[in-house]
Design goal:
The chain is an alpha/beta fold. The chain is built from eight helices and eleven strands. Strand 10 and strand 11 form a beta hairpin. Helix 5 packs parallel to helix 7 and helix 7 packs parallel to helix 8.
């Protein structure tokens, strides 16, 4: 059977543990590989931290990663991983992780630039996908909101094809950015769809992950995972007994 270059056979679903044992148990062992995952949620719900956890788990397994970030600089993205207790620094310095950012001096967001960027990112992922086993975009929000429906659908078709070639593709997206019909199409296209929200527990705000679907999970997964992000411990699970959601 052919290999994708990272020791994982093509055409077979494997599991990539995140390295967080408690979280992996909740996920049914880890993240299915290959797959297309979408993480959706409002601002401040932990989309970046969760996607970095998945990315780090894959990098720790010896896979090569590519991250395209739209909400921070390259340095800022790496520092975010440090602040979340999910350090990507060593992988970045050793060349196992390449990070590209759309944030640069003098750049301005607008309808025209966002539309161009979505097409550019789509072509970039397609051209670079042979060099990496894991590809991440954090986040699609600022570029998808201004793009036409056909461009958004073309983007999802591109990443679907990339995942089908034996890659793990992770996308983050703010809730409500896409039209409802596009959101429905995106959910149908992906293998894993996860929604994040905030909840109150004993006066403390925690993050709630609801796994809408996760194709290829090795065992039964917990559909609801409650956690917080601790700089010392990374993603830390908290009891599920919520005061209110």
């Amino acid at each position: 059977m052919a290999s994708n270059g990272a020791g994982m056979p093509e055409g077979k679903v494997e599991i990539v543990p995140t390295g967080n044992e408690e979280f992996d148990i909740k996920l049914g062992g880890g993240v299915p590989f290959p797959s297309l995952l979408i993480i959706e949620g409002p601002h401040g719900t932990g989309k970046t931290a969760l996607s970095q956890l998945f990315l780090k788990g894959a990098l720790d397994m010896g896979l090569r990663g590519l991250a395209v970030v739209t909400e921070s600089t390259i340095r800022g993205y790496i520092l975010k991983s440090e602040a979340a207790g999910i350090s990507l620094t060593e992988h970045f310095l050793r060349g196992r992780l390449d990070v590209y950012s759309t944030q640069f001096e003098g750049s301005r967001w607008g309808r025209r630039s966002a539309t161009v960027l979505l097409d550019l990112i789509s072509r970039f992922l397609e051209s670079e996908s042979r060099r990496y086993e894991v590809l991440l975009v954090d986040s699609l929000s600022h570029i998808a909101i201004y793009s036409s429906p056909i461009r958004v659908l073309n983007f999802f078709n591109t990443v679907r094809l990339i995942a089908d070639r034996g890659k793990l593709v992770v996308l983050t997206l703010h809730e409500g950015v896409l039209r409802e019909d596009l959101t429905t199409r995106a959910r149908a296209t992906c293998d894993g769809y996860m929604k994040l929200s905030l909840a109150s527990l004993a006066g403390k705000t925690v993050k709630v992950l609801k796994i809408v679907k996760l194709k290829g999970a090795r065992s039964q997964f917990d559909p609801t995972i409650t956690f917080d992000v601790d700089p010392s411990f990374g993603i830390k699970l908290v009891p599920i007994a919520l005061a209110s959601v």
